[in-house]
Every structure is written in C-alpha cells, then in structure tokens.
Amino acid sequence: xxxxxxxxxxxxxxxxxxxxxDDLAARLDTDDEWIRxxxxxxxxxxxxxxxxxxxxxxxxxxxxxxSAGVERAGLLVVATSTPDQPLPATAPQVxxxxxxxxxxxxxxxxxxTGFVYALATAAGLIATGVADTALVIGADAFSTILDxxxxxxxxxxxxxxxxxxxxxxxxxxxxxxxxxxxxxDGSQHRLIERPGGGSRTGAALAAAAGGQLxxxxxxxxxxxxxxxxxxxxxxxxxxAVFAQAVQRTxxxxxATAERLRWPLEAIDRLVLHQANARISAAVGQRxxxxxxxxxxxxxxxxxxxxxxxxxxxADAAAAGDLxxxxxxxLAGFGGGLTWGSxxxxxxxxxxxxxxxxxxxxxxxx
Length: 365
Ligand code: COA
Prior knowledge:
By secondary structure, this protein is of the alpha+beta class.
C-alpha cells in the first residue's frame, strides 16, 4: 500500500511593518499608479530592525502546527534564499525554536520556486517512510537584499512566511500531494541573481579586506567588474524574467494536470507564485483558466518569494475562496531559473487555515 504526503495544517505570517506604494514614491522615482498598473501591488510588509527570516519562519510554522492541531513534526524543511546567514542552514534553528528537538532539518534553495521544491522533497521523504510528518516552511526577507536605489526591484518584493504541515496518508484521500513536476534552466541563471555571499565573490571580498586567498593577492571586484559591496543586492532583468515566468509556469501547470489526468478545465483553483498580477493573468489566459479561479493576494503582500504560495493559500482558504473538495494546482517560478508544480484536492483542516497577521496585529516576536 503506497503512502502519500497529505496536507493537514496551514499557517502564514507577515511582519507588521507596512510599506505602501506612496512610501516608496517618496524615496524613489516611481508612483502608485505605475506600480499598481504594472504589477498589481499596493503594499508590502517588511522586517523591522533585528528581524530575520528565521523569525518569520517560526511564526508561520507555529501557526501551521496549531492549524493541524499538533505540537510536533518529524522533519522540518525551510525553503528560503534569504537565510539568516550563509552557513549553517536556517532550518535547524527554526526547529529548535519550535520545540521540535533534534528532528532532521535543512534548507531548500530554489528562490521563488523554493516552496514547491520543498514540498516535493518532504513528500518524497514521507512516501519512503523516512518521516511520518513534516513541517514545510517558505520564508524570505527579500527587503534585506534589495538595492535601496533600484526602483525596479524595490517595488516588487515583500517579506513573509507560510507553512504547511504534512502527514503520511493514503494517495486517494483529500489533501494528498500528487502530480509533482519540477524543472530548471541554469543557462538563464543571470536573469535573477544575488552574486555576492558565495565562493565566487569570496575572493573579491578577501581582496577588498586587503587579504589573500590561496597565496594570491587579488584585486577588488570579480572578473565581471562587480564591486564587492554591490554583489549583495538582487539584480533582475525584468522583461526577460516576465516572458520566462509566463511560459514556464504555464508549462509546469500543464505537466502536473497531465500527471493527475485532470483536464485543465477541471482545475478549480490555480495557486500561482505571486510575482506580478500581469504574469498570473497571462498564465491564466494561456491555460484558459477563468480569472475567478486564480487566487491572489499580491496587492497586499507583493512578491514574497518562497513564502508566496503558502501565504496566498492561507489567505484564500481563510477567506473561503479555497474550499474542501476543490481541485488545486500550486505552481512556482523563480531564479535559477526554476519552476515546479503539484496538485491536490483541498482537504478540510482540523483547526482551519491561519492567515497572515494583519497590520493591526501586534508583533509577537
Ligand atoms: N516606477 C516607474 N518606472 C519604472 C519602474 C518603477 N518602479 N521600474 C521600471 N520603470 C521604468 C523602466 O525604467 C522603463 O523606463 P524606460 O522605458 O524609460 O526605459 C519603463 O518603466 C518600462 O520598463 P519595463 O521593464 O519594460 O517595464 P515592465 O512593464 O516590463 O515592468 C517589471 C517592469 C519589473 C514590473 C516587469 O518586467 C516584471 O514584473 N518582470 C518580472 C519580475 C518578476 O516577477 N521577478 C520575480 C520572478 S520570481
């Protein structure tokens, strides 16, 4: 009898500090109308001083555990590309703070597709009996890696976290994950990148500090002329990313639907990574999905990277837009490039989904 990973809990969290389009327009050459019409975003939440990705992850993880009515999970996977620090991974610390003890805990790095990759990884470990339950958290704080002077990226991204609790169950019960499809194209890795912080720029940083690496004195800046100080910022080729996002997201949804033997019109809710409302609309058009079957919260949170899919899931489920029995496909796209999707019939959750905190909620960190 085969085992499947079944969604049993859902929770999300956004930090209380809000940045509106007008706030950005006061500091950058942009305006509310441009941002709304080109992206669909009205506001985003950002971390405050001293807050980091693990703080967001802990809050979302706690909410997903409460939604499932359990206190523990046997495995923790954190999808993030803004870990608290390059090493060690963020997940073990999150596991400790959630009281999960010495469970296996690791990060998955697939940028905005991270949550789908992490779900697939955890589902595989449940299916093979390595774990009976898993907490999968998508958490990112992109506001910490944006160039304050870059209007193209500053307007898009926000911070947050979302989480799902998986348990072992049967492949034919509601909530069972199925039809996983994943892909990547590393030839396009420069379309969205944060060059610094890794081994390639380690040499440049060593030189900037007047140090030596492997016995050689190195010049500041890498072969491409990047100054070390700027390598910590996210860069993006917006138009090319837009085109790739539409094409790859539509392809991965089709692949998952085929694996599930669901005709595209049988999908009740399409839960796309919230990158840009125009990208989601274009994907919906390609697939012939009516607009009211696309769930969205990008107006309130922006692009929250690995947190985006569980955040919009929690919001849609709490609002009653995502209901038990709905056939749902989750699909992500992001840097790498990476993309992926997975399907499930939406289950009835014991404690209900717990959505992200609104701006009036007081922070609990
Ligand atoms: N405010 C005002 N003008 C802006 C702006 C901003 N925040 N950002 C860019 N512009 C300007 C550009 O400089 C350009 O000016 P120019 O014509 O004088 O050169 C103009 O607006 C049009 O730029 P363009 O890049 O063609 O706009 P666009 O319609 O493609 O929208 C993005 C830009 C970034 C919103 C869009 O390309 C996008 O969403 N790309 C995908 C990004 C994404 O989702 N990344 C994450 C994937 S996981």
